Amino acid sequence: MRGRAAGETEDLHHAAARPLPLEPQARRRRWERPGPRGQSATRRDGYLPYAMIAPLVVFIGALAIYPTVLTVVEAFFHIDPLSPPDHFVGFGNFSAVFSNPQVRQSFANTGWYVLFGVALTVCLGTGIGLLLQRPFRGRGVILAIVVLPWALPGVVEGVIWSWIYNPTFGVVNSVLKSLHLIGQYQLFIGTRQVESILLIALVQAWQITPLAALIVLAALQSIPDELYESASVDGASWHRTVRSVTIPLIRPALAIATVEALVMSLNIFDQVYVLNANATTASSIMSTTYFITFQNLNFGQGYALSLLATVATVLLSVGVVKVLYRKVEYR
Length: 331
What we know:
Layout: H1 2-17, H2 24-31, H3 41-45, H4 48-74, E1 77-78, E2 87-88, H5 92-98, H6 101-131, H7 139-151, H8 154-164, H9 171-178, H10 193-221, H11 225-233, H12 238-249, H13 251-266, H14 270-276, H15 285-295, H16 299-324
Antiparallel strand pairs: 1-2
Helix pairs in contact: 4-16, 5-16, 6-10, 6-13, 6-15, 7-10, 8-14, 10-13, 10-14, 13-16, 15-16
């Protein structure tokens, strides 16, 4: 008993001599090394994230911010290499743009592009997302095929669809004639305004729809299965479930998909340039800006038209977000 008591006394002495564990704050202060001018290593490490993102900030500034500022400034100057020198004209470029009948025609055409493009993209993207929501055999292959048009450049898509719409050997003419819907091959793009815009908007929607489908599919995958089970127990049909459960819960995704389609439809250029060339029948704001700037060499009006397109894109995008976006909370 005496030896046991002596051993316990010795353990108590060792425990008292052992240093107590440091608190987190004290432990951090212990390992801080004084830096220059009394600055600690922890404080120096705080600048590391800013140093790592600095190249990206510089890149974005050179690629986006600087051209935007330049466009805003140069839109109020007369810049024409054929009639120098450059001088300040105020809102003269904007008044000249609005008085140009080709520009007014391009604004009307772009409105049709937005109407057709956004409607087709959101409807098709939502439908494809609903079809791919549940796993099935071959789902990965179908998803890869769906994403393929999104990976193709706009010019390549324009060339492919120019073969499809070709008035001599195009697939559309061949199918319509075999179905006895037309008597002879026809020229579809460049003759009638709405028809030309609809066919070009179909090409644009073919490119944007995969992105909308992926956005909607990601939102569908986040919906808990318990909600569908509850709807099934209540006797709701598939259409009622989609209308009352699915659509309200994917409204943020629908808002994002709509904004993406809106921005790309407002700035459509590649497909119009390849399929419509310089005809005014289906010209867009971007194609008209290109021809005014680089064909007529009137850079001042080109800057002004680009600025108007940018402002219209921002305002419409903000409006769509305000109308469609709703925060979703699962309780």
